[in-house]
Amino acid sequence: MKKIIKDILILCVITIICGGLLGYVYQITKNPIQHQLQQSKQDAYLKVMKEATSFKTYKENDIKKLSKKLKGDYGKNGLEIENALKAYHQKQTIGYIIQVIDHDGFGGDIEIIVGINLQKEITGVEILSIDETVGLGMNAKNEEFRNQYVGKKVDHFQVVKNGKQNEDEVDSLSGATITSKAMTNGINGALDFYDLLKGR
């Protein structure tokens, strides 16, 4: 009986020490991780709107209110607008940057950052977070796939499998139709939210 109690006490001490160490490691890595995440976002903003010299972030409550007005078909699980910014060159507005999380990726959420200028032309698409199948859905990160959206001025995109022929068509990734549709739904959501931001 004494041995059992002793073993339990030893196990409790080890658990407390391990918990303390994990908490300590979390505290010292928390800020660097947050800093790296913010830096990744800033880099993405500049990539999708290269001419921007500054940004103004919309308030979280305003984004939520506008998001409720989105009426498009964005797939089974839909999407959410994570962030929205107005982009400036010096003091002149040149477009908007919209951060979207689509919930219909094959491997889970896909977080996309989309730049759209005042002519409703997509200036850039960056993927902030994705966990799709390597060699298939992860190819969405390839510039060749993302550039299908860039420079286009359409209301909505659609995914096709037999070769795009129209401005609003996007070639599906081979073996990754689900990922292709999730990406496209996310970008369509960004285009719709752009319209709401501009009061259309």
Task: Write the topology of this structure.
Blueprint lengths: L1 H47 L5 E4 L2 H8 L11 E11 L2 E14 L2 E10 L4 E8 L13 H4 L11 E3 L8 E3 L5 H21 L3
Parallel strand pairs: 6-7
Antiparallel strand pairs: 1-2, 2-3, 3-4, 4-5
Radius of gyration: 22 Å
In spatial order, strands of the major sheet run: 1-2-3-4-5
- The quaternary state of the protein chains shown equals single chain
Q: How would you spell out the order of helices and strands?
A: HEHEEEEHEEH
Describe the 3D structure:
This protein is of the alpha+beta class. Helices cover 40% and strands 26% of the residues. The protein contains four helices and seven strands. It has helices at residues 2-48, 60-67, 143-146, 177-197, and strands spanning 54-57, 79-89, 92-105, 108-117, 122-129, 158-160, 169-171. A hairpin with a 2-residue loop joins strand 2 and strand 3. The relative contact order is 0.14.
Short description:
The protein is α+β, with helices and mostly antiparallel strands and 200 residues long. The protein has helices at residues 2-48, 60-67, 143-146, 177-197, and strands at residues 54-57, 79-89, 92-105, 108-117, 122-129, 158-160, 169-171. The longest helix has 47 residues, at 2-48.
